[in-house]
Amino acid sequence: MAEDLALVIEDAEDSMKKAILHLEQELVKIRAGKANPNMLDGINVDYYGAPTPINQVANISVLDAKTISIQPWEKNMLAAIERAIMQANIGITPQNDGVQIRLFLPPLTEERRKELVKKASGEGEHTKVGIRNVRRDAIEAVKKLQKDGLSEDAAKDAEEEIQALTDKFIAQVDKHLAAKEKEMMTI
């Protein structure tokens, strides 16, 4: 019974860690005014009929704080990469010079910054909901174990431990959001 309980708590913690990891990946995609090659994560290029991540068909580098350079390994991929960036609607128009593609990040307006903060907050809320769902599932599993013979005290302790985990991970979400908001609102 104790192993089952430990397994439920361990699974809950793993799921909450995955939720935080997902949040970190989503926050990286939200640009904060500085050029970051991770902004292009999730953009797929049509590579001979197969959707392929940009970083697998080109070399992506940051030239300066406002410029990203994309150097395709095959020259014929320029148009496909440019098309994929346009379709991704990341708010940047690619500049194709026939050899490489440059992305010039325009300075963020106050309105755009607030919009991005809202988007980041929305991602944070989704993550919090996910963490709370994990908590709910874990507590239901503990109650099921209690029906199968787990003592009431052990069940209460497990529920408190799950709640403590939830509080810890919710605090991490808030910390990530505060850091991202500070980054976005800094001019």
Description of the structure:
With 187 residues, the protein is α+β, with helices and mostly antiparallel strands. It folds into two domains: 2-29 and 109-185, Orthogonal Bundle (Topoisomerase I, Chain A, domain 4); 37-104, Gyrase A, domain 2. The protein has four helices and six strands; from the N terminus they run H-E-E-E-E-H-E-E-H-H. A hairpin with a 2-residue loop joins strand 3 and strand 4 (67-72). The longest helix is centred in the C-terminal third of the chain and has 38 residues, at 110-147. The radius of gyration is 22 Å and the shape is elongated.
How is this structure best summarized?
The chain has 187 residues and is of the alpha+beta class. It has four helices and six strands, in the order H-E-E-E-E-H-E-E-H-H.
Structural class: alpha+beta
**The CATH superfamily title of the largest domain:** Ribosome-recycling factor
Compressed to H and E, one letter per element, the order equals: HEEEEHEEHH
CATH class assignment of the largest domain: Mainly Alpha
Instruction: Give the C-alpha Rg.
Output: 22 Å
Largest sheet: 4 strands, antiparallel
Apparent shape: elongated
Q: Largest sheet, order of strands side by side?
A: 3-4-6-5
Helix content: 55-70%
In total, how many domains does the architecture comprise? 2
Tell how many strands the DSSP assignment holds.
6
- CATH fold category name of the largest domain: Topoisomerase I, Chain A, domain 4
Average pLDDT reading: 87
CATH architecture of the largest domain: Orthogonal Bundle
Query: How far apart are the first and last residues' alpha carbons, in Å?
Result: 55 Å
